Amino acid sequence: MDFNYTLRYRTFNQLLEDVTVDLSSFALENMIEPQQLIKLTKKLNYDLGLRINQQREVILEVCHGKVKLPDDFYTFNFAFICGEFTEHVGYDGYVGGTNIQEVPYVETPGHVDVCAPATINCSVCNANPCNHTAACPDNTCPATCSPSTIPTSYDPLNPYGDTCTRPRVFMNCKGEKHELIQVINNSGTTRRYTELIPLRMKASQEIECDCPNLYWNAANEGWIKGGFLFTTFQTGKVYLNYQGQMEDEDGNLLVPDHDLLNEYYEYALKARIMENLYLNGEDVAQRMQLIEQRLRAARNQALSVVNTPNFRELQEMWWANRKAMYGKYYNMFMSHSPNNNYRGALGRNRVI
Predict the structure, then answer these.
(1) What does the pLDDT read at residue 324?
(2) DSSP characters for 298-341?
(3) What is the strand order of the sheet 66-68 is part of?
(4) 85-89 and 228-231 as β-strands: parallel, antiparallel, unpaired?
(5) Which parts of the chain sit beneath pLDDT 50?
(6) For the CA atoms of the chain, what is the radius of gyration?
């Protein structure tokens, strides 16, 4: 499980920028190849273990006994079958409502006349041949005039408006153009599942050995094969908790952004850069020795940080030990068959 809820991440490009700053002379001569460092960065993530991976969750909809796993799926934590549920409007009974988003505007047409007169937004009648505007709706317009009706929608070829049409695109003093878009949440419904049904999983390389789904004795069974989750039931919803790949929404490689872990990644990349330069005939032997010494110390420090339990894990370990000692020394006969609540639930009488 992932308890590093405060761990932040940065992309591979940001890591490479910090490395090239320290090796500026080689970077100016284009002697650093990023393609040679991507597989090394993935190896470093694997070396630190699953504790640095992000824990994610999703509800999958099974159709015809199978469903595709998320694209960033890496390791299976646990899963349940979603049973009965209740629907609520919005979140906690409140409608989602609307929100205004400011979107950068792509110019159409390409040329903007910044010296055009300001828009008066239909506050007065303009001096067009028809004299037919929203401010003067009683005026009649001859059939020969164009336009013959009051503009009711924005003109895509005139996004900044005119003397009759309000603008939908705004420009600041820097020349940056933005368009305000109102997003309306029509559905605004939230499902709250009140019943979770166990799902037994078959062992595979994507499932950890301590996964509880491997040891449940349940009627429904599932297995992972070829990036899909197969189930014995045909339709339904499955709640899946998993460890995600070290990548963001755009597919960029991620690394942890921690003060005690950054040196390990930076020195590892520097050591690989120096190794490649040495193999290509550059005289960097002394620099390699210095970096390798620092790399060993940084790796030991990074592993100690990753493998050290945090407060949450120590608290759960303390509770587990306390319950074990209580059952061993103070309530040792509770698991005896006459005192077992499971037998009472089956309607069997206790005989003393």
Answers:
(1) 81
(2) HHHHHHHHHHS--HHHHHHHHHHHHHHHIIIIISTTTTSGGG-H
(3) 66-68, 228-231, 221-225, 200-201
(4) unpaired
(5) 1-4, 118-137, 139, 142-144, 147-150, 152, 342-352
(6) 32
Question: Which residues, 6+ apart, have CB-to-CB distance to 100 below 8 Å?
Answer: 180, 181, 182, 183
For the record, the structure tokens of 67 come out as 């469903």
Sign of the Cα pseudo-torsion (18, 21, 26, 29, in order):
positive
How far apart are alpha carbons 229 and 222 in whole angstroms?
Answer: 7
Strand partners of residue 66: 63, 230
108 CB burial (10 A radius; 0-12, 13-18, 19+): exposed
Provide the token pair at 240.
């899946």
Q: DSSP letter for 63, please.
A: B
Amino acid letter for position 337: S
- Residues 124 and 284: their CA atoms lie apart, in Å, by 77
Q: What percent of the chain has pLDDT over 90?
A: 27
Closest of 320, 242, 323 to residue 74, by C-alpha:
242
- Decide if 88 contacts 174 (C-beta within 8 A): no
Residue range 64-92, pLDDT digits in tens: 999 999 988 989 988 999 888 877 665 55
Sign of CA dihedral 221, 224, 225, 228: positive
Q: What is the pLDDT of residue 119?
A: 45
Axis crossing angle, helix 35-48 with helix 12-22, rounded to the nearest 10: 110
The H or E element spanning position 6 is: none
Spatial neighbors of 50 by CB under 8 A, at least 6 apart, are 2, 75, 243
